[in-house]
Amino acid sequence: MTPLTILCLASYEKGHDFLRACKRQGCRVLLLTSLSLKDSARWPREALDDIFYMPDENKQWDHNQTIFAISHLARTERIDKIVALDDFDLEIAASLREHLRIPGMGESTTRYFRDKLAMRMRGAEGGLRVPAFVHLLNDASVREFTERVPPPWMLKPRSMAGAIGIKKVNSREELDAFDRAFGDERSFYLLEQFIPGDVFHVDSIVYEKEILFAVASQYGRPPMEVSHDGGIFTSRLLERGSETETALREMNTRALPALGLLRGVSHTEYIRSKDGELYFLETSARVGGAHLADLIEAGTGINLWAEWAKVEVAGGKAPYAPPEPRGDYAALLVSLAKQQSPDTSAYTDPEITWRLSKDHHVGMIVASPSYERVTELLHELTARVQADFYASAPAPDRPGA
Q1: Can you list the domains of the chain with their CATH numbers?
Q2: Buried b vs exposed e over 61-75: b needs ≥16 C-beta within 10 Å?
Q3: Is the full-model pTM beyond 0.90?
Q4: Which helix (H) or strand (E) element contains residue 363?
Q5: Sign of the CA dihedral with 329 first, then 240, 378, and 279 last
Q6: What is residue 282's predicted lDDT score, i.e. its pLDDT?
Q7: pLDDT category of residue 226 using cuts at 50, 70 and 90
């Protein structure tokens, strides 16, 4: 039997466990990555049958040149699947599938998992509560929005990831200044109602439109706030069966089908406003970044990267079921550090299951069967890291900045 050939796209270094899981299942694994990573990335070469490099600028690839390159590769390689391992690769992966007529998510559906305007429109059409928004396109529509929805507003690029490029706008005068600066690029932005509140994420595995696994977590502070104002990034698994956890999982069961995810993984964010209402914020068709996959594995035993690989290989033609999740709790903290190589050896709590190894960063995950113990440890460790290591830096306006 001819092995399945999977081409993985990764403009950033990530997804090692996905690559290894594909190889364990007998696939031929090809990787297309950024030329700028050639000397620094530590890809699991034992899991790769071949690796190819695209010239890049800040990890961004030229769209047409990528299509030319993969079309040339397809002369000698029969590519069965194309998988984007990073948010920034979703659109080119969809274009390649369309161009080469390879099964998988096409360009229209990909919009709902990449374009913040498209996902909000689709979510609202599907009955999800979303913050009020307007496309920064038609002058009359924008004026009507700013007269109806009081500031502050959130100005968001439609196709960036996470908090990159997001601006808080406090007045019509500030908005007009941004508008003038954008020029012809204004249509690539949307303006959204600012809703203060707690931000959550639900990370899911979907197979044939059925959510087979989902775990709800809460950020300590909204990622956008940490990115722009500084602070320590934290997240923790919510107490199972709690009112908030139950409401998030229920909303998630409506969100992913409404957006059209057939199979794969998803990281989806929600916000609970001060009056207790839940709103859909945004979603993705990939594993969550910022080590959230490590957080989920610490609490549940489920490796989302490896399960995603199993889903892709099964491809709707074979049965798939995730492992039975473990019922522990976990919390994650990550911070910039003033030291180049932070020494966390004095942090000796036995519940620490993971430590980040990265220059000028410090990070830890704690896990325990006790939700209360995890909560206590997260508070204690956050205070200690703040005192021992914490540093801040300006938020990036573009990928790779």
Answers
A1: 5-111 (3.40.50.20), 132-193 (3.30.1490.20), 197-388 (3.30.470.20)
A2: beeeebbebbeebee
A3: yes
A4: strand 361-368
A5: positive
A6: 94
A7: confident
